[in-house]
Write a structure and sequence with these properties.
By secondary structure, the chain is α/β, with parallel strands linked by helices. It contains seven helices and eleven strands. It is globular.
């Protein structure tokens, strides 16, 4: 709950009734912004909750995270999944709301962040959902799957395991091409563990990511390395890049203290 505009998300798709209850609790009169990943069940339930909230006089707006470049080609961004890059949407929206911006202003800057965020990841092992009790897909020892979704959605290719530098290069190349990064651009980078990949390996990847971005003429203004969007025990990692201007960088740099995340 933030002063004025409330910004929220959940990690498992709630029912519309559950989301309505949360919406009513956090609403302070300025409206509520829903931020969540672009998945069919979430879209259905959140949209229904927004309709129910509107019937009770609560204005709700939505910004979808759809940053996964592996899940749909360029030009079809509306079909893409929302994965770790949604972190930047939360950060920007939260900072803007805390500053006292109106709901329309928070929505606008969050959509701006979404339009400039891209993510690409890979899986080194499968995930076991507690309700299923067994791995939902297979990644053989010594193999990897590029573009795997955080819920086990299929990637774009399987291959033999490559070096950290080779993997990082492939992920960043896809992001660079999709985001049209150019020399002189400024970015923030999120190096994310999918659950079982330790910080040491993430820092190895970030080292090469920063080197590669520098070779493009792109400046890394801020970096985050750690667990931000995990998938239980899945081994793997994702790289998220947001191209920033002074406005977006100011919101990303804004200090924050929450149960999930603290930034001085």
């Amino acid at each position: 709950m933030l002063d004025g505009v409330a910004v929220g998300d959940v990690f498992q798709s709630p029912t519309a009734e559950q989301m309505l209850a949360v919406t009513k609790q956090v609403n302070s009169g300025a409206g509520v912004l829903y931020i969540y990943g672009n998945y069919g069940g979430d879209v259905f339930n959140f949209d229904f909750a927004a309709e129910l909230a509107a019937a009770e006089g609560i204005r709700v707006e939505t910004v979808l995270g759809a940053d996964d470049v592996a899940s749909a080609p360029k030009g079809e961004e509306g079909r893409r999944r929302g994965i770790a890059g949604i972190f930047f949407l939360y950060k920007v929206a939260g900072a803007a709301a805390a500053k006292g911006l109106s709901l329309d202003e928070v929505v606008a800057v969050t959509k701006k962040a979404a339009a400039h965020t891209r993510t690409m990841g890979l899986a080194l092992s499968p995930v076991t959902l507690p309700a299923v009790g067994h791995p939902t897909f297979e990644v053989k020892p010594g193999e990897m799957e590029i573009g795997m979704g955080i819920h086990g959605e299929p990637g774009i290719r399987k291959s033999k395991l490559e070096t950290a530098d080779q993997i990082t290069e492939e992920l960043l190349t896809a992001i660079k091409n999709d985001l049209d990064l150019k020399s002189g651009d400024k970015v923030c980078v999120l190096m994310n563990s999918l659950g079982a990949t330790p910080p040491e390996e993430l820092y190895i990847m970030f080292r090469h990511a920063k080197k590669t971005l520098k070779s493009y003429g792109v400046d890394v203004a801020r970096a985050y390395v750690g667990e931000f969007a995990t998938s239980l025990e899945m081994a793997g990692a994702s790289i998220s890049v947001i191209r920033v201007d002074d406005e977006l960088l100011n919101y990303i740099n804004t200090p924050v203290h929450t149960p999930f995340f603290t930034q001085a």
